[in-house]
Design brief:
Helix content: 55-70%
Strand content: under 5%
């Protein structure tokens, strides 16, 4: 057995669910990628072992403008995407920071609720995973904006500041 194979599989399953949700749910995703609702439902089901075929991944990513699965596949191979640029502005940096802090708070809340009784159920694990996915999404956006700030020589986050 390949080390971390289960962890990679669960990561890909989580990214599939995120992509399906971003496309508007199971029915809408089925329309977009021309697969049956039952097939898309199996992809979204954390207990099913099925992963999306590449043509479905490409269709859903193109429709949603997100590259969740492609990034997860690249990450599983030890690679990262680096061709995304963002233009940093004072407001976007502050907004990205605030959103990331809020998402981290939601993750901590889910974890605290799940761990309170000393047990972690599959449902609690799924809620934590969804909250973590939102944190990852926020961090990705935050990092793109910071890269834009760095590329433009920095920016002032306080009016009149040095």
């Amino acid at each position: 057995m390949v080390p971390n194979a289960n962890a990679r599989h669960f990561l890909l399953k989580a990214k599939q669910r995120d992509l399906i949700a971003a496309a508007g749910g199971i029915e809408r995703a089925a329309e977009i990628c021309s697969f049956s609702k039952s097939a898309v439902g199996r992809w979204a089901n954390p207990d099913s072992h099925e992963l999306m075929p590449l043509d479905a991944i490409f269709s859903l990513e193109e429709e949603t403008g997100r590259v969740d699965m492609s990034e997860a596949i690249a990450s599983a191979r030890g690679r990262r995407f680096s061709d995304v640029e963002a233009v940093a502005t004072n407001g976007s940096v502050m907004q990205a920071h605030a959103e990331t802090v809020v998402r981290m708070g939601e993750l901590m809340t889910e974890g605290a609720l799940a761990f309170a009784d000393g047990q972690l159920t599959p449902a609690e694990s799924a809620r934590i995973d969804r909250a973590l996915s939102k944190v990852e999404e926020g961090l990705g956006e935050y990092r793109r904006i910071l890269a834009g700030a760095k590329a433009s020589g920095g920016l002032k986050v306080v009016p009149g500041g040095n």
